[in-house]
Amino acid sequence: MSALLQVDGIECRYDQLVITQDISFALNQGDICCLLGPSGCGKTTLLRTIAGFDQVYAGQIKLNGELISSPSMMLQPEQRQVGMVFQDYALFPHLSIADNIGFGLRKLSDSDKKKRVHEMLELVNMQELAERYPHELSGGQQQRVALARALAPRPQLILLDEPFSNLDFELRKHLGLEVRRILKALNISAVLVTHDQTEAFAMADYVGVLNQGRLQQWDTPFNLYHEPRNRFVANFVGQGYFVPGVLKEHHKVETEVGLFEGNRAYPWPEGTEVDVLLRPDDIIENPQGHIKATVEQHTFAGSATLYRLRLPSGQIVESMFNSHAEYSIGEQVCIEMKADHLILFKKDESCASLAR
């Protein structure tokens, strides 16, 4: 089965400034993907290129097997069967909610248009608000209207440009799951742009991590967290710190916090200096533990507290403790390591690939 969206070797430029380079990925029908990365990494430019707002300098984009962008041609946005949901919603203030949703349905008869608008209102659970105007709605309601309007023409693909960034955390989380449910119910593929990895992991089947215009890794959220391809992905996805160590065997490494024996083997010779990625769930509180760390900072998060700890060498790590455990800044706490899934990088390689 061929991919619905195929992006091959895309390079985007503004004048002579290179924004993205050699980006390739594919998206199947019904899949939701997220372009994740820091500000300025090129993710919005890439989304605009897929939408047809920006020309590609090199490479090509195909939608359902049809070429829609290359250096020599660019199918106009309205001809692409692609829906777009913008960060600022872009609703028409002088039109009712029903008229906003039906705006792009000019080719339908009046009866079919009315039926489609009613279907979209039901889909986003806003039947009772059809005659209201955008300024009478909350931010979350406006976002649902924007989604319904983008879905109404039944596009092959939906593009979402940081659609929840103007909403508070709880609403963002709820609406993200609701949007995923709607897209999955309709079997519509989507590309979401965000800098929020929690949002990306909750919504996406696949995540593409970008940095400085290059795609660092395209993978499932699980693999990005547990199998980061390089140091940037390891640092950007999830919380974690690197602790220096020395490889003892292909699956063992000695560090200041003890000997780790993992479930994977690395091809480097014994004695190789490495950095071990330790995430908060790799470090646990243990009153009988042999390692004493000093509390530098703590952040209460309800059921757990995130502690920033300084090891005897001065190395910083983080750990999630049960919220019933209370330690003050400057206090010492006994810990132990429970990392059996080793993620190692060579000391002298800034972007080393993981062993496979």
TrEMBL record:
One of the record's GO molecular function terms: ATP binding
InterPro entries in alphabetical order: AAA+_ATPase, ABC_SmlMolc_Importer, ABC_transporter-like_ATP-bd, ABC_transporter-like_CS, Mo/tungstate-bd_C_term_dom, NA-bd_OB-fold, P-loop_NTPase, Transp-assoc_OB_typ2
GO CC term (a single one): ATP-binding cassette (ABC) transporter complex
ABC transporter domain: residues covered: 5-237
Pfam families on file: ABC_tran, TOBE_2
Native source organism of the sequence: Oceanospirillum multiglobuliferum
Keyword terms, alphabetized: ATP-binding, Nucleotide-binding, Transport
Gene3D superfamilies: 2.40.50.100, Nucleic acid-binding proteins (2.40.50.140), P-loop containing nucleotide triphosphate hydrolases (3.40.50.300)
Gene Ontology BP terms: quaternary ammonium group transport
Name listed for the protein in its UniProt record: Iron ABC transporter ATP-binding protein
